[in-house]
Amino acid sequence: APVIKRADYRPPEWQVPEIALDFALSLTATRVRADLKVVRSDAASGPLRLDGDGITPGSVLVDGAAHNDWRMDDSQLVIDLPGNRHTVTIETEIDPTANTQLSGLYASNGMLCTQCEAEGFRRITFFPDRPDVLSVYSVRMAGDKAAFPVLLSNGNPVASGEHSDGTHWAEWHDPWPKPSYLFALVAGDLVASRDTFTTRSGRKVDLAIYVRAGDETRTGHAMKALIDSMRWDEEVYGREYDLDLFNIVAVADFNAGAMENKGLNVFNTRYILADPETATDGDYDAIEGVVAHEYFHNWSGNRVTCRDWFQLSLKEGFTVLRDQQFSADMGSAPVKRIEDVRILRAAQFPEDSGPLAHPIRPDAYQEISNFYTATVYNKGAEVIRMMTVLAGPERFRAGTDLYFDRHDGEAATCEDFVKAIEDGAGLDLKQFRRWYEQAGTPRVTATLTQAGDTATLTLSQTVPATPGQPDKQPMVIPLRTALFDRDTGKHAGEQLLVLTEAEQSFAFPGFTALPVLSINRGFSAPVAIDMAVATADLVFLAAHDDDPFARYEAMQQLMVRHLVAAVSGELTEAARAEGLAAIRDVYAAVLADGALDDLMRGELLILPGEGYIAEQIAQADPSSIHAEREALKRWLGSELAAQWHALHDRCTAVPYSLEAAARGARKLKTQALVYLAASDPAEAARRAKAQYDSADNMTDRQGALMVLAGIGAAECDEARCAALADFHARFAGNALVIDKWFSIQAGALHPDTLKHVTALADHPDFTMTNPNRVRALYMAFAANPQAFHAADGAGYRMIADLILRLDPINGNVAARFVPPLGRWRRIEPTRAALMRAELERIAAAPGLSRDVSEQVSKSLN
Ligand code: HT7
Ligand code: ZN
């Protein structure tokens, strides 16, 4: 496939200020007529080039007359036009039911809907399908009224009517010029939950969430999230909504989480539907975050869009930051920060250290869908977050105000964003721009010394080589830092140290004894910190640090260091005992700390993930990491058994509500079971069964089932199987909950998980055509280290087989399964060879999608 390079960007030769679309709707043969008003750009002399994908032009008219000067150049329709302004009319026909790729116009459960980002519009009609072509859309659609009673598109409804033959029609007009990727159409049998929002300037906005009949009772949380987001964006970023209505549609078949189409967001049902019986607290949080994210795109993405897809982080990184800030304001800010860092470390750090590493603004791609990554989204958010750290909130806001003012209605670049922050906030971001250019997670080494009355902190940084970028320049790394006095347990104020050189020293007068270093507080920079720090200092920080993230980090470090040493066989028995005792003591202190809220307590009591431990090791042995982590869990389970029992009892007594205290109790309840399951499976199974049987909410039920499903002891098998059978029967027909049933089993600690997943793939409820179901089974499996990394390579084979089977159905989703196999260089040699062999097997298969082919070839290089 051709490589598209950022450096090759050229402005479009033709603009399309207006487009009128007319759809004759049908599940199997939808006819589309597109009228494009095209205008030649100054100094352009070439023909009109319109992108297409899997469609053929039925007819081509220019200014209303048949036109023969056109040809196909690969999939592009090339039309020679005599003048500078014309109306071009093209007809196409699509089979939405055959569209299993779920890009363009497709059918889902009898409804029709679109997904156009990134390049789906060209599967509907011929068009310059690039984000710097902005058009005003008028849409007409007509279809069978019984099959499609609801007809929606972007913007405002203009007119509608019906015919005596049982068909009806609707017209929509969107006054805001937009790129084609934001176009949307939905037609189906849907019901709406409605509310209103009055903007700060007093405009009333009608809000509707469209779902299938029966689901309307489960839209309340999403609606609340929408209203909260609309208010928050006015208050925090000064952004007001700009249409009279805002529609959301939930669809069961969707490649991603949701889509921010102008005035008509389309959502995966999993990010809309919730009630206590069927959605966990995590689901509630995810709904709040995704609804907010899509709403915030109305400004960061839609009003100011991207010039080209290399600028994707312009809208995605910024919008992730905005949704993170929103969720922090709606709930517990420290807990949200810890969760976001955990996601970054679990998903983005491995990307940055693997074969698919790319800067947040990539330089080249074959298939843009492969660049909707944790790097572009989550690291992109971290990069902008560092600007907030450097500028402070008021100056950062001045920067974003300037950005929105300057570029409203434009297709902008990351450079435009940085410049606006630079100008508006009064920062010099010259060197900072390297965050957009260089891939790889910087490593900072920190050394603290003390002499006389001064403590000296020496910081050095390196950015690892990544594919195509062997040599790196120093980054700007803002590190929020505090030095703690050992005697008082306090510090004299936090400082922002900005590391800009390869090596730099910072002096702190007033220390006659060596203080304890607390660095990268709040995770102010997305870097890895290396420091030779005594276990006692980590114990000190775990107990005393007033920055909640730093406290969490001290506990994580304590455990990571112990586990990495244990895995590499470096631990003497004495050191092992000492490390375990230290970890047990900080756990005991956290369990007993009356000043902590339970949500935060739950964060502090999370073991580092196996993937994050593996990241610290050049070539990891997944089985020994798993064994050591389980051993630590077992030790904590047995050493603190009485505390876990008491915790489980205390939390079980807390009644269900969505308040923080009750959510904290639910989080801890299942955590207590997890530790007990490692040390005393029979007792854990007894408690888990009781929790399952008495559950009045999905958080408790799923937690209990997850614990039961993981217990391998034969005497617990009956309880395990009974609970799984009950869960399936209880929620039969509820697709989102049945997804959980698949995930729980595929992610289980049970030694037979691989066998279970093989059987589940043949279960009547499994289907390859629903991305949620595929991800529920196989993503959970690929993220289950013990099962995926089976020593004989059966886990790798399973994922490779999946990729090969799924690719012809949905290449976009199939490609998402390549990165777990692509990590082979970071795994011990025997498994690495097996992983590589599976990648080679995929690479040798004929007819691979561009999505899978790009990911596999990069992973082999
Ligand atoms: N902007 C949206 C991206 C998206 C997408 C990308 C590729 C394939 C399918 C997709 N569905 C939605 C989602 C977002 O970040 O808001
Ligand atoms: Zn987004």
TrEMBL record:
GO terms for molecular function: alanyl aminopeptidase activity; metallopeptidase activity; zinc ion binding. Its cofactor is Zn(2+). Pfam families: DUF3458, DUF3458_C, Peptidase_M1, Peptidase_M1_N. Residues 222-435 form the Peptidase M1 membrane alanine aminopeptidase domain. Keywords: Aminopeptidase, Hydrolase, Metal-binding, Metalloprotease, Protease, Zinc. Residues 70-182 form the Aminopeptidase N-like N-terminal domain. It catalyses: Release of an N-terminal amino acid, Xaa-|-Yaa- from a peptide, amide or arylamide. Xaa is preferably Ala, but may be most amino acids including Pro (slow action). When a terminal hydrophobic residue is followed by a prolyl residue, the two may be released as an intact Xaa-Pro dipeptide. Residues 536-861 form the Peptidase M1 alanyl aminopeptidase C-terminal domain. Residues 440-530 form the Peptidase M1 alanyl aminopeptidase Ig-like fold domain. CDD domains: M1_APN. Its EC number is 3.4.11.2. GO terms for biological process: proteolysis. Belongs to the peptidase M1 family. This is Aminopeptidase N. It comes from Novosphingobium sediminis.
